[in-house]
From TrEMBL:
Species annotation: Sinocyclocheilus grahami (Dianchi golden-line fish)
Compartments in which it is found: Cytoplasm, Cytoskeleton, Spindle; Midbody, Midbody ring; Nucleus
Name of the molecule in the record: Kinesin-like protein
Amino acid composition bias (Basic residues), ranges on this chain: 1-12
Annotated keywords: ATP-binding, Cell cycle, Cell division, Coiled coil, Cytoplasm, Cytoskeleton, Isopeptide bond, Microtubule, Mitosis, Motor protein, Nucleotide-binding, Nucleus, Phosphoprotein, Ubl conjugation
Location of the Kinesin motor domain: 21-432
Top-level taxon of the source organism: Eukaryota
Bias-annotated ranges (Basic and acidic residues): 655-673
Gene field: LOC107583756
Chain intervals with Low complexity compositional bias: 677-690
GO cellular component annotations of the record: Flemming body; kinesin complex; microtubule; nucleus; spindle
Entry-linked PROSITE patterns: KINESIN_MOTOR_1 (PS00411), KINESIN_MOTOR_2 (PS50067)
Main location: cytoplasm
Binding positions (ATP): G108, V109, T110, G111, S112, G113, K114, T115
GO biological process: cell division; microtubule-based movement; mitotic spindle midzone assembly; system development
Length: 941
């Protein structure tokens, strides 16, 4: 009979994919003491900044500098409890009223204000009393009677019938001394001023056609045991029973619940808070009795809101369990998050503390895994079961619901390190997303209820009834009163008629309405079908989106992988580039070295070439010089031989004509027989007629009238020339053959020098008899040059050095050689030589007959390579004066030497003088030198 209604469904697994991150709020409590060091600064309403206290300079992670953390909202020290509630808990309460679950917990170090935030203090109620107050403010008028809703033992809610509920109420009243009137407030000073009436808060929209009931539970999780703080245990003062721990179970909707946990139905804020306070007291007592520290336990206050539609009467809740909707809000005050070392735990308590820590660790791990699963698309198992706290709230993260966390921090410096850990956990938690609870619109049952209650129809009937004429007086005056009854009958009949009419009308209207409603119903059904259809489509779309999301996740992972690979490749590239650079560098340095070596080589080469060319040049010059010298020597030799031949020819010719040559060496004669005919006749006829005293041919043509055994023949003279021994020397020596031997026995150097001089530069021509020349001398008019040997020089251009040694004897001869333009010297001097090109030496000596014989030895001056002058003797003119008184004359000239040797022997010695003349070097002030060819430094111009 209730099939026409839209069914109310219990909360199921989320069918949507919308998710919201866990809302994390940060609350900074004021410092305990004004002068305490502060390490937290609120820099905006979403960000705080931590800075290391002065005492803690270097953290081992190097995190001693400032760090910033951002949250959904940051509440500074001046934030009031009301402000905090408005931002953090109010939306959760709204959700609760709209059938959505919520979880709110406070997290932080002991003393950071978790309990203050959750519970508050008198005058400054925390989130818990404010939430309760808001709930009752919102649903107050629509609450169901006590015990109408009754929790089953499987986290569900039943609806009791009126009678059972009434019986339960009576039972409760009889058991407790609680005053029946709910308006009477029993004020507990401990929580009296938790909420001031002015601050009352109310949910925006409440389904007024539902009936509500609030149930609260209060549990404590200590050392991974769950204790029910609201359990009524008969108090045994003698042997107090230790509290029994509870276990967790999963209901048919896969929600976790504490099995057998007391759920107290509360009808007002005060009552609810009283229950809470009762639990709080119990907790305190238990902690004291069991020597536990309250800060090491988690306290969970669960507010359950059951709502169900009212029945047709509008008085009672619909007796249909499936129509009951239960939502819950968990308010959790977590244990202090500090590490074990911080507490003064000893012995057993240390173990407990470790466990407590363990449950918070598990919470951390769960959050981490959730985050990883959500961010990386992995499907790791979240270890909810590892601790009771996480297990209990598994469904909030797995299923749907709104999760919020208030991170409490104490800005004091001592807490800095712990606060850092809290901040990291909080930041991580923000990244976890929780499925958004499905929005279940509140369905109005107004029309339906109007129909059920018949409200408006009844009203119309009443109005109609009231508009009828009143019934006529029906008091019968007597037995004969015939008027009253028929009048009444009439009126009633009229009314009956009207009624009939009205019933008809009513039926008609009802039928009409029915048909309209049926129509509407079918409309609604079709709409519902449509909605269902749309839902299906939505599901498909959702699936598609999910698939695409998965694809995106996959691609993201792939891109991450690729990025990683790129990173590695980049690094590898960098390494290779580094290698390349170093290799290039090495290459460059090697090339530089190579170039250096090459240039060194080139330099060496050029140097070597220079040396080679120098040496080559030197040797070439040397060779040239030697060749030249050799050539000259050979020429000279040739020339000498030529001359000898000429002379021989002349002699031969002469011998032929006169036929009285005395000691002619057969050798000479054999040598030059061919040239005899060629020689000219040297004796002109005119000569004999001229001057008888002059006998030019004294040596070569010995006078037949003065035959002398010691006279020098021409042949011997030649042989002497050949041997390089001057006539004068030979003459002074003891024996002629010995003199040759002596000449050969001369010191090597001298012999060589002499040979050289004679051979190269002084190819002295043997004396020659030339009558024609004599004629020139006699006439004193012609030039001093023998026409036969005339050179290319013009006569006027020749200058002569006239060398007359001082030892010469003035002979008063008539014929004196007259050389014009001559430089007269008595010792050979270079200056004079350099100016002239001809040289003549007037030389006196004794002839074999004892007479003085004058020889004019002529030569040509030419420059030597050494820079000196050399004289090449070309002619010897012999002048002889004959005196009949020969002996006296002879003696006179030879008497000068004390040892009988002629004084001028050395000076008149031709060889010596020539040698001196020849070897005079240019610029020399040392006198005659011997080695004028010794320096090949100066080059030929
Ligand atoms: P926790 O529960 O984190 O151990 P409490 O809530 O017990 O810390 O706070 C410790 C002390 O600090 C209490 O005396 C409390 O009154 C005070 N307190 C905490 N937060 C604040 C706040 N925001 N404003 C004023 N006092 C606070
Ligand atoms: Mg506390």
């Amino acid at each position: 009979n209730k099939s026409g209604k839209t069914p109310r469904r219990p909360p199921k697994k989320p069918s949507n994919n919308q998710k919201d991150p866990v809302g994390v709020y940060c609350r900074v409590r004021p410092l305990g003491a004004e002068d305490e060091e502060c390490c937290i600064e609120v820099i905006s309403n979403t960000t705080i900044q931590l800075h290391a206290p002065d005492g803690l300079k270097a953290n081992r992670n190097g995190e001693f500098k400032e760090t910033q953390y951002s949250f959904k909202k940051v509440f500074g020290i001046k934030t009031t409890q009301r402000e905090l509630f408005a931002d953090v808990a109010k939306p959760l309460v709204e959700d609760l009223i709209h059938c959505k679950n919520g979880l709110l917990f406070t997290y932080g170090v002991t003393g950071s204000g978790k309990t203050y935030t959750m519970t508050g203090s008198p005058g400054q109620g925390g989130l818990l009393p404010r939430s309760l107050d808001m709930i009752f403010n919102s649903i107050g008028p629509y609450q169901a009677k006590r015990y109408v809703f009754k929790p089953d033992d499987k986290n569900g809610m039943e609806v009791q019938n009126q009678v059972d509920a009434l019986l339960d109420r009576q039972k409760r009243d009889s058991q407790t001394s609680v005053p029946k009137t709910p308006t009477t407030r029993r004020i507990d000073p401990e929580f009296a001023d938790m909420i001031s009436p002015e601050e009352a808060c109310k949910a925006g929209e409440v389904d007024e056609d539902s009936s509500y009931s609030v149930f609260v539970s209060y549990i404590e999780i200590y050392n991974n045991y769950i204790y029910d703080l609201l359990e009524e245990t008969p108090f045994d003062p003698i042997k107090p029973k230790p509290p029994q721990s509870k276990i967790l179970r999963e209901d048919q909707n896969h929600n976790m619940y504490v099995a057998g946990c007391t759920e107290v139905e509360v009808k007002s804020t005060e009552e609810a808070f009283e229950v809470f306070w009762r639990g709080q007291k119990k907790r305190r007592i238990a902690n004291t009795q069991l020597n536990r520290e309250s800060s090491r336990s988690h306290s969970v206050f669960i507010i359950k809101l059951a709502q169900a539609p009212l029945d047709a009467d509008g008085d009672n809740v619909l007796q249909d369990k499936s129509q009951v909707n239960v939502s819950q809000l968990c308010l959790v005050d977590l244990a202090g998050s500090e590490r074990t070392s911080r507490t003064r735990a000893e012995g057993n308590r240390l173990r407990e503390a470790g466990n407590i820590n363990q449950s918070l660790m598990t919470l951390r791990t769960c959050i981490e895994v959730l985050r990883e699963n959500q961010m990386c698309g992995t499907n790791k198992m979240v270890p909810y079961r590892d601790s009771k706290v996480t297990h209990l709230f598994k469904n909030y993260f797995d299923g749907e619901g709104k999760v919020r966390m208030v991170v409490c921090v104490n800005p004091k410096a001592d807490d800095y390190e712990e606060t850092l850990l809290v901040m990291r956990f909080a930041e991580m938690t923000q990244e976890v997303e929780v499925a958004r609870p499905v929005d279940r619109p509140i369905c109005g049952f107004l029309t339906h209820r109007l129909e059920e209650r018949g409200g408006p129809v009844d009203g119309v009937l009443n109005q109609l009834l009231q508009s009828f004429h009143p019934l006529p007086p029906c008091e019968i005056s007597g037995p004969n009163d015939d008027v009253t009854l028929p009048r009444l009958i009439d009126a009633l009949e009229k009314r009956h008629k009207i009624r009939k009419l009205m019933v008809e009308e009513y039926n008609k209207t009802a039928n009409m309405l029915k048909s309209v409603l049926q129509e509407q119903d079918s409309n609604l059904l079709s709409k519902e079908n449509f909605i269902q259809e749309q839902r299906g489509r939505l599901g498909e779309k959702d699936k598609m989106i999910q698939n695409q999301k998965n694809e995106i996740d996959r691609l993201e992972k792939k891109s991450k992988m690729l990025e990683y690979k790129i990173d590695i490749l980049q690094k590898t590239t960098n390494i290779y580039e580094e290698d390349k650079r170093s290799l290039q560098h090495e290459l460059e340095s090697r090339e530089q070295r190579l170039q250096r070596e090459m240039s060194e080589k080139r330099r060496m080469e050029t140097r070597m070439q220079g040396i080679v060319t120098d040496a080559k040049l030197k040797w070439e010059k040397e060779c040239e010089r030697r060749v030249n010298a050799k050539q000259l020597e050979m020429q000279n030799k040739l020339w000498v031989k030529d001359e000898k031949l000429k002379q021989l020819k002349a002699i031969v010719t002469e011998g032929k004509t006169e036929n009285r040559q005395p000691q002619r060496p057969s050798r000479e004669k054999d040598k030059v027989p061919a040239k005899r005919s060629v020689s000219p006749s040297p004796v002109p006829s005119s000569l004999s007629s001229l001057e008888p005293i002059y006998n030019f041919s004294q040596t070569v043509r010995p006078d037949p009238h003065f035959p002398r055994p010691g006279s020098v023949s021409v042949a011997s003279c030649i042989s002497e020339w050949e041997q390089g021994v001057p006539h004068s020397r030979r003459q002074g020596s003891q024996s002629p053959p010995d003199s040759r031997k002596r000449a050969q026995g001369l010191p090597d150097s001298l012999r060589r020098r002499r040979g050289r001089c004679w051979a190269r530069e002084v190819p002295v021509q043997p004396a020659e008899v030339d009558l024609e020349e004599t004629g020139h001398w006699v006439s004193r008019t012609g030039p001093l040059v023998r026409p036969l040997h005339r050179r290319s020089h013009s006569a006027g251009g020749e200058r002569w050095v006239d060398h007359k040694p001082t030892t010469n004897v003035d002979l008063d001869t008539v014929l004196q050689p007259n050389i014009p333009n001559a430089i007269k010297v008595n010792a050979p001097n270079e200056k004079a030589l350099s100016k002239c090109d001809k040289y003549v030496l007037t030389h006196q000596e004794f002839a074999s007959d004892g007479e003085i014989q004058t020889k004019l030895i002529k030569g040509e001056v030419f420059k030597t390579r050494g820079g000196g002058q050399a004289v090449q003797f070309t002619d010897i003119e012999t002048l002889k004066q004959e005196n009949p008184v020969a002996a006296s004359r002879k003696r006179r000239s030879s008497e000068t030497g004390p040892d009988g040797e002629p004084m001028e022997r050395n000076w008149t010695n031709v060889e010596t003088r020539c040698s001196v003349a020849v070897e005079m070097r240019a610029g020399s002030n040392l006198g005659p030198g011997y080695q004028h060819h010794g320096y090949p430094k100066r080059r030929k111009p």
